[in-house]
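INFO  loader      accepted 1 record
INFO  loader      residues=165
INFO  predictor   begin
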Amino acid sequence: MTEADLESVCAVEKSAYTHPWSHKHFADSLAAGYPAMLLLGEALAGEVVHPARADGRVLLGYLVAMPGVDEVHLLNITVAPAHQRQGWARFLLDALSLWSRGQRAQWLWLEVRASNAPARALYTGYGFQQVGIRKGYYPAGQFQREDAVVMSLNLVVAHAAGGAA
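INFO  predictor   done
INFO  writer      dumping tokens
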């Protein structure tokens, strides 16, 4: 992901979430040098391709992570709504897991909305374990907040066990 991709990324972000990341969130992550990956695919017949993708490819999804000491924190993972439920989020998790192990990270961390049952099921199926709750972490409407479920994946154990990660 580069600054040139942010118009397309923000369009997908706005279509996927009621409380999307702003352009500034993405730009700040890129400026900080955080790993940010795009998942691009061929446009299907009749599919509208965002103008920023003049190469004919469509933005299927993306992720942004933050490396730390022996760990990587997944900050944002999104699959465009038209491409959800096709395995792309798992594909992005595979890419992040491989990259993280290449950085010698031992853990992957993330937060997910408590109400986001499909994402929680994906993460649990991938091997993440719930390790805590962050009360009122996410905005959830006018003067409302929603809890985040904190999850982690031990990359060393998952890799040694032959898991997807």
